[in-house]
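Write out the bound-state structure for magnesium ion.
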Amino acid sequence: MPAKVNERSKENEAQVSAPVVGIDLGTTNSLIAYMDMGVPRVISDAQGAPLLPSILSVDESGEILVGRSARDRLVTDPKNTVFSVKRLMGKGIEDVREEIDLFHFPITDDSREVIRLNLRGQVLTPPEVSAHILRKLKEAADKFFGEPVRQAVITVPAYFDDAQRQATHDAGKIAGLEVLRLVNEPTAASLAYGIEQRREGVVAVYDLGGGTFDISILKLREGIFEVISTNGDTRLGGDDIDARLIALVLTVLKEETGTDWSENDVLVRQIRFAVIETKHHLTDNDAGVIRFPLPEGPDGKKGKTTSVEIPVTRSQFEELVRPVVERTLPRARQALEDAGLEPEQIDEVVLVGGATRMPLVRRLVEDLFGRRPHTELNPDEVVALGAAVQADILAGGTADMLLLDVTPLSLGIENMGGVIAKIIHRNATIPASASEMFTTFMDGQTSVDIHVLQGERELVGDCRSLARFKLKVPPLPAGLARIEVKFLIDANGILNVTARDQRTGVEQSVEVKPSHGLRDQEVERMLLESFDHAEEDLNLRQLIEGRIEADIALRATEKALKEAAAAQLEPEERKQIERAVEELSAARAGNDHRLLRDKLEAFNETTHHFAEVLMEGAVKTVLKGKALKDV
Ligand code: ADP
Ligand code: MG
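---
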């Protein structure tokens, strides 16, 4: 550990009473760490293992098992054994429809907004399953410290959206932990290496775990990390390497026994355990053997087995899995491109995830960045270690380091005409806040509808609805109210929306807790669609905004013409205004946004004097295109 981390922690030591831990809640494995005199260390369980498989199983007696004992049941009781629950966090059933086949455990039919798993009659949501994993980690820590741990920092992937972060936060709460902060995994890994000490620089974090690949580019400025781009593949990891080996074994078996064993689930799961063992062995050795018991007889009846041994060398293994590892490279290049950087501009490369122990991965990453990655710490521990560093900083309260992140999609509210008014833009660094002024659309409107949306497209129907609330406003002519809508995304990435009537000071706010989040593919799809439809959307938006402006101007003018003061108008002037009203109405009814814009300008010119005199400036004060309707 770098000495600097030591110094920083010593200052804090005196104030730390209860231990604050850092937790990596992983898809495959989870672990817990703490600061030991300035050095982060992982806490092992009673069996001396630091890694806890993120697996939960309900056994025949209804007891909930977590970790290795649950993992053993993947073979014997797959229907009541949950793995990869991280993939389900903050998601609705629709979000995971395509993935459901991959899970052997049942998801209940009444899962609509929140996914529910039915394990031998016990119904659990993903945050509850995660809470069991957290509790198991906490137990080991409680025992280690001899007193209960109460506060924790938990890590999440940088791309986790609001709902996924909320679900993780909830899991912590359910487990009886106060979650001091959710920290991005790549940031935690950088903290574990003490990279913040260099104050400035660019860090690439390459994370190849069990089932996911994430690449993050972080910029360090004045000791603060900012995630400037992320990329990855939610279906790429050590599991795919295992799958290649399993396929190899099944081919060999077929050649040798003349039987296709791929339908024998029990055998396939045994082969899986065997190849994983061999894969790990080949990280430190040039050759290994895949060893497992094969049932005698083609139908695999219980009872007699023979032992199968398939020798593999490291180079055979590497040749076989190379295509899997190479799939990470275009993703990594894309992240660099999104960050606007060349590989040479990366100052530090950090390896995260158990699969980066493989020498092949290390070579390919080194080739890509032209620099040797950090490997001094265990790649499957480094995220938890960094979380412990962050926990220590927060507990000490001396240096509340801001760990920045970016929003994956733009956020805004529904504007008149069914278009989105973006308030925080995609890729904005968080914590972030921004506000926009809105007004009312109708005369005498007594409330405005604040409809919170996420997405890149211009039309509300193409964006995702996150929340909706009403703000009461005093009745006023259209366009006179001043409503400030403020978006705030906190350091954990949780969104808070406030609407405030500036005249009355009345305020309404919501913490956005969507029932489920976006899949990464959905984010990707929304982005692609927004590029595809950019021009069309923009035209439509201009047309809609033009129509709103025209409606307000026409209504105000018609009303004003009826008022007594209108009698002061010269007949010629009146005629001109009436003609302008006619032309604008015609353009408003058409579909040409350019023509409408021209007519609006002409209309404003013609009615300018009139408006000033007669309309209390109502037309002028209309906030261009920023009006909220009532529901
Ligand atoms: P996650 O972040 O998904 O929870 P981990 O970082 O714990 O996952 O990585 C788990 C993956 O790392 C598994 O596929 C595991 O087989 C793999 N792994 C762990 N150690 C090694 C090793 N020595 N060689 C190759 N792969 C390894
Ligand atoms: Mg991980």
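---
The radius of gyration is 30 Å.
The pocket of adenosine-5'-diphosphate (ligand 1) is lined by residues 26-29, 209-212, 237-239, 276, 279-280, 283, 353-355, 357-358, 380 (CB under 6 Å).
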